[in-house]
């Protein structure tokens, strides 16, 4: 951070109180410009030191997937982690730049992990969504889990494959009926003029399958009598399996001396055999 930018940071923390350890400028600049920067910047002062016993090499499983399952169970069991399956997934689109060369633009969003099997990590989505279209063109993906209460994070890199129709059908029809109606009706990532358009599409789907009120848009019409109704999976909806070739486990420690271990393997081999290395924090 340059002295000028550091000096321009506001002394107001997220709680609205004046900071006692805000940065100060050592470089003279335009008074008006510096004042404008102060009015439009907020210094983040909410971080506290991580307090854990750390992660030792001897505690690691030889398998990245086994190690993940261990940590994931810890997150499930922790009372202060209400949704441990929430993960950030990042995809990359290739766009043509002004010079005719391809420009890689990443995009990220929160998605829920639905299953971990012996081959990788599984989530479901609309294949016509932005992430679905980007994965169709570029199958490489990154996942990130962060469990603050444990001061742990897991980063996954790999390549996706689509699930079979049988796997998609099995999961789709295990979901609440209203969720299935929403998945069929929503043109995910497409522009819509208003929520009323979405609700109209949902009602059209309910009428198509003769399941009135399935999505709960009308509380007086909602009923559980159709919950076990089998609904065909639309061809634009399904799952991806992320087959990892890199998995990193991070545990926060005080004074930024965190523990990081990275598992890597040859993606072509897809064997549960990993090389493990410690990384500097």
From TrEMBL:
Protein name: pyridoxal 5'-phosphate synthase
Pyridoxamine 5'-phosphate oxidase N-terminal domain sequence ranges: 81-207
Domain Pyridoxine 5'-phosphate oxidase dimerisation C-terminal as annotated: residue spans: 237-281
Enzyme Commission code: 1.4.3.5
UniProt cross-references to InterPro entries, sorted A to Z: Pyridox_Oxase, Pyridox_Oxase_CS, Pyridox_Oxase_N, Pyridoxamine_oxidase_dimer_C, Split_barrel_FMN-bd
Keywords: Flavoprotein, FMN, Oxidoreductase
Matching PANTHER family: PYRIDOXINE-5'-PHOSPHATE OXIDASE, PYRIDOXINE-5-PHOSPHATE OXIDASE
Biased composition (Polar residues): 17-30
Biological or metabolic pathway of the protein: Cofactor metabolism; pyridoxal 5'-phosphate salvage; pyridoxal 5'-phosphate from pyridoxine 5'-phosphate: step 1/1; Cofactor metabolism; pyridoxal 5'-phosphate salvage; pyridoxal 5'-phosphate from pyridoxamine 5'-phosphate: step 1/1
Listed GO MF terms: FMN binding; pyridoxamine phosphate oxidase activity
Cofactor(s) listed: FMN
Keyword Lyase: no
GO biological process, one term: pyridoxine biosynthetic process
Chain intervals for the UniProt region annotation (Disordered): 16-38
